[in-house]
Write a structure and sequence with these properties.
Number of domains: 3
Largest sheet: 8 strands, mixed
Helix content: 55-70%
Number of helices: 21
Shape: flat
Radius of gyration: 61 Å
């Protein structure tokens, strides 16, 4: 394709408005199918008139009722009997017109001798605004039956409400008695569980243990912490520090007698003390003696010589005392080590006791909690049981629930004739309904139909350039064909459309190389490609250009018929029999337009177009003529186009409005692009001038009239006006 100018692309993108496209589409749909809603409306109005042209007299009767929203009974547990207030008014209105009330009213009337089957009555119930007054309004063909039905419906509604309340009261008492029996069984089961628990567990023992076991476990834990602390001190302090600490505590702490545990066990309140502290005391005395002797030696050394007998004797005593001290030190160390071992044994025993008593504490807590749970459950059930018994014994649920909550405010009025004024609206309603139905059907058909009807739809579906819109023209009834354009053609819009197509071919190219061999095709038959090819050749020839029109539709070509010529040897002879192509050229009535007809029909045209003779012929013809216009078969009908189009400079794709499917046309274009065919653009053919998007040439056809034609038109119009004036005066 020829690339667009960037400014043209920007302009086109601005023109594409999806909303506007949709509006134009539906406007065009209504313009084309206006008769569908019109016929639907006419049929609906006619049906309404036919149904209601002889309306049956209709009578109406009105009655009113007051329905209380709530009936209080303060004796019921401080509350009261009340109906469901959610959507109360709507619920009662539906109940009033229900089949139950209607059937009961019908039976009542049948008992009095009035049969509603032969005299049907329609009942409607409404609620007066901001009140609880219900308005009964019945319509029927018999005035007496209508009035009786309203009255019977109100009375049967009262009876139905009374029965419903009584049934609800009986059900309430029965439910309360059943619930009482259930609670009685649950209470007996709870009491049996308590008795069973008490038979297997001593409550006195639980109470005693609960008071003492906690303090006992606490004392065990405290004793364990004391022993661990004592053991840590023995390991941390030195021998001398331990002896000094022990000496400091001797006399200040006396042994404490053990206490009996809940199980009869005995434990001591402090670490065991050794009954014989003699080694440690001797060690301390010997240590003090050595220190005193060393002090005396230091004093003597200040006044006496080192070898003085007293000094020597004192040193010997110090040596003996130090040996004795070392002996006492060893004994004391062994004593402390034994003390540590004994303390570790006490710690292990105490830890075992703590674990045992913790298990007993958990079990005791579980049993206590279980006993409390059983007691609470029994008390709760006992309380509910007593309350329910009191309610049954002291309250009569039926008391206070009477028919006074529903009463008739106004009996049924005598039936009056309904004015027939509203009957005139029913044919209109039928008409509007049929109009809506016809529009819906029209929209459904339109959704299923993908044929392209307007320029906006075409641009919305395809990205190719739309070269021209060719307006729809009348065909000749004898031939069924649209005549070719002429130099003095009076079809202004038709003529100008092809002139616009000619200008597109002359000026659209931005490369400076004008296409000379132009192939014209379409997606399916009957889209106007042959007429477009012929008229394009004619409009180019009218400018003085030498134009060769080639009928390449070797199966059903008709170009020779359009120009009143014989098919001759034609293109099939050139490609199939090797005839010189100049001999197949036929002159037309246009001086510079020549035609190569199709020749004999053949079913092997695709093979002929693939032969070397085809490009050779097109090359020679384009050298001798200014333009070579090639009319081919439709893309989807035969493979001829995809075999021939690659040899042409460009291709015009014809698409007929209101006939071509968008999906089929897109598939045809895809086949052309797959063969590397250059598509210059789309020719939108047979467009209704009244369609949306067609806005040129056709609407200004008077602009092309000559002065003589305008003068004749004005004279003819003036004579017509004078004739009408004379008729009015007469």
């Amino acid at each position: 394709m020829i690339d667009e100018n960037p400014q043209e692309q920007e302009g086109r993108s601005r023109r594409k408005n999806p909303l506007l496209t949709k509006l134009n589409h539906y406007l065009d749909l209504i313009t084309r199918k206006w008769w569908v809603p019109v016929v639907g409306s006419v049929v609906g109005v006619a049906a309404g008139i036919a149904v209601y042209q002889t309306p049956t007299p209709l009578f109406t009767s009105v009655g009113r009722m007051i329905v209380s929203l709530k009936v209080n009974n303060d004796k019921v547990g401080g509350g009261g009997y009340s109906e469901d207030l959610n959507n109360f008014l709507g619920t009662q209105a539906e109940l009033m017109v229900s089949d139950v009330v209607s059937n009961r009213a019908s039976f009542r009337m049948a008992a009095s001798g009035t049969n509603l089957q032969s005299k049907p009555v329609l009942l409607r119930v409404s609620v007066s605004p901001k009140t609880s007054i219900f308005i009964f309004r019945a319509y029927g063909i018999d005035p007496e039956a209508t009035q009786k039905f309203v009255q019977a419906s109100m009375e049967e509604y009262i009876n139905l409400k009374r029965e419903m309340r009584k049934q609800a009261s009986d059900n309430t008492v029965a439910d309360m008695i059943e619930e009482t029996q259930t609670l009685s069984r649950e209470l007996r089961a709870a009491q049996e569980e308590i008795v069973s628990f008490e038979s297997t567990n001593s409550l006195l023992w639980l109470q005693q243990q609960g008071n003492s076991v906690g303090s006992y476990v606490s004392s065990l834990n405290q004793k364990l912490e004391d022993m661990k602390s004592e053991h840590n001190l023995l390991n941390t302090l030195t021998l001398d520090q331990n002896l000094e600490r022990q000496a400091a505590t001797i006399g200040s702490t006396a042994p404490v007698a053990g206490t009996n545990s809940p199980a009869g066990s005995s434990i001591s309140n402090s670490p065991a003390q050794s009954s014989n502290d003699q080694p440690s005391q001797e060690y301390l005395k010997a240590k003090q003696q050595v220190m005193l002797q060393k002090a005396d030696l230091q004093d003597l050394s200040q006044f006496l010589r080192p070898k003085h007998p007293k000094v020597i004797a004192l040193k010997e005593e110090i040596v003996r005392a130090e040996r004795l001290l070392e002996m006492f030190r060893g004994e004391t160390a062994d004593q402390l080590e034994n003390k540590k071992v004994a303390l570790e044994a006490q710690i292990r025993n105490t830890e075992n006791d703590v674990k045992i008593w913790n298990v007993k504490v958990v079990e005791l807590s579980r049993k206590t909690a279980e006993y409390q749970r059983l007691k609470s459950s029994a008390q709760r059930i006992q309380s509910l049981y007593e309350q329910l018994l009191a309610s049954i014994q002291t309250i009569d649920v039926n008391k206070g629930i009477t028919g006074e909550s529903v009463s008739i405010a106004e009996n049924a009025t005598p039936a009056a004739l309904v004015p027939p004024s509203g009957e005139l609206q029913k044919p209109l309603t039928y008409g509007l309904g049929c109009l809506a139905l016809s529009l819906a059907i029209l929209l459904i058909i339109d959704r299923l139909d993908d044929r392209l009807n307007s320029l906006a739809e075409l641009q919305d579906v395809f990205s190719e350039e739309v070269l021209v819109q060719i307006p729809r023209e009348k065909v000749i009834e004898s031939t069924g064909e649209t005549p070719l354009i002429q130099l003095d053609d009076t079809r202004h819009g038709f003529m100008e459309a092809y002139r616009n197509l000619r200008s597109s071919l002359l000026y659209m190219s931005q490369t400076g190389i004008q296409p000379k061999t132009i192939l014209v095709t379409s997606s399916i038959p009957n889209e106007g490609k042959s007429l477009t090819s012929a008229n394009l050749a004619v409009i180019l020839a009218l400018t003085g250009s030498r134009v060769l029109l080639v009928d390449a539709d070797l199966r059903k070509g008709v170009q020779h018929k359009r120009f009143d010529l014989e098919p001759g040897a034609g293109l099939s002879g050139i490609l199939g029999k090797g005839l010189p192509w100049e001999e197949a050229v036929v002159a037309t009535k246009f001086p510079t337009l020549f035609l190569i007809p199709r020749g004999d029909t053949t079913q092997s045209s695709s093979e002929l177009f693939l032969s070397p003779a085809t490009p050779a012929f097109l090359k020679q013809a384009s050298a001798k003529y200014d333009y070579v216009i090639i009319d081919t078969a439709p893309v989807m009908a035969a493979d001829d186009v995809t075999s021939l189009a690659p040899h042409a400079d460009t291709t015009l794709f014809v698409l007929r409005a209101e006939q071509t499917s968008g999906r089929v046309a897109q598939a045809a274009l895809d086949m052309l692009y797959h063969r590397q065919v250059k598509v210059l653009g789309i020719v939108f053919n047979s467009v209704r001038p009244s369609s949306t998007g067609y806005y040129y040439y056709y609407n200004y056809k008077d602009y092309n009239l000559t002065d003589t034609t305008r003068s004749k038109g004005r004279k003819k119009g003036g004579a017509k006006k004078r004739e009408e004036s004379a008729k009015i005066e007469a």
